[in-house]
Amino acid sequence: MSYEKQFCLAGEKAGADARFDPPGSKITTLRLDGEKVPGCIYCETGWYLRPCTCPGLVSHESDELLVFVGSDEHDPENLNAEVELQIENDRLILHETCAVFVPAGAAHGNIAVRALKRPVLFFAVQPGASSFSEKPARASAAPGTYSGYHVERYEPADGVLPEAPEGFLTRLLWIDGKKLRGAPYLEAVWFLGTNDTGPAAHTHDFDEVIGFLGTDPDDPGALGAAVTFEVEGQTVAFDRSCVIYIPRGMRHSPILVPALERPIIHFTGGSGGDYATK
């Protein structure tokens, strides 16, 4: 059986995001949805290339994680930009690489990207949906309700760091239900070099998306690395930015990077509120 159908490669449903002004200031590099992989977790990745705005408030039926990543691997916590985002009656002003948790039904939006010195990498995960949908919304929650709904810097809730070869990665973000009540799990890291060992094959009791993103905004589809990934014992190799859907119970890993020309962003996220393997 081939598992390549679970892979969404850069270029599929890519293009400028028409919601943002000026046109072309935010681009989508790939979108994983139910049309591509039935029943999957919805995921979208892209770049903010220039200062821009997206006015208006919307809501989703699913929880959502919005992740903003600075593109300088030598200064990974620095967005090199200011991102303003409203959740209900709270405004978040973001200057560091971060993950923002937007609970299902919460009004959010009025995004403004300012003082952009370097392009900002962006990805969104909706663990309770397989396709994108939104509806206009109005803020109704009391001010302060959502003021703390984001995380910066890497600090696993249980204090245990996943194993990795020395010098292979820089850890960026960890969010889960222990760190922020109600939030789904997501982790993001930079891959800085090659490796010949990876996480042992395992399963989860939640659905998962796994991303590998190239970090050249002028050629975002190019991964700048060669990666191999095992799904149910079958090895799949790729060299383009991609997101992979792993249904609960499906055995996967290790992740190997035999060649790397440019550091890449790797992330995993899931429908569970806590990371656990079997």
Explain what this protein looks like in three dimensions:
The protein has 278 residues and is mostly beta strands. It has a single domain (4-270), classed as Jelly Rolls (Sandwich), CATH 2.60.120.10. Helices cover 0% and strands 47% of the residues. The protein contains no helices and 21 strands. The chain has strands spanning 7-9, 15-16, 26-32, 42-48, 52-59, 64-70, 78-87, 90-96, 98-102, 108-114, 120-126, 135-136, 150-152, 169-175, 186-191, 208-213, 222-231, 234-240, 242-246, 252-260, 264-270. A seven-stranded antiparallel sheet has the order 2-3-4-11-6-9-13, with no helix packed on it. A hairpin with a 2-residue loop joins strand 17 (222-231) and strand 18. It is globular, with a radius of gyration of 18 Å. The model has no long low-confidence stretch (mean pLDDT 93).
Major sheet: 7 strands, antiparallel
Total domains, how many? 1
**Termini Cα gap:** 23 Å
Rg, nearest Å = 18 Å
Rounded mean pLDDT is 93
Strand order of the largest sheet: 2-3-4-11-6-9-13
Order of helices and strands: EEEEEEEEEEEEEEEEEEEEE
Structure summary:
The chain is mainly β and 278 residues long.
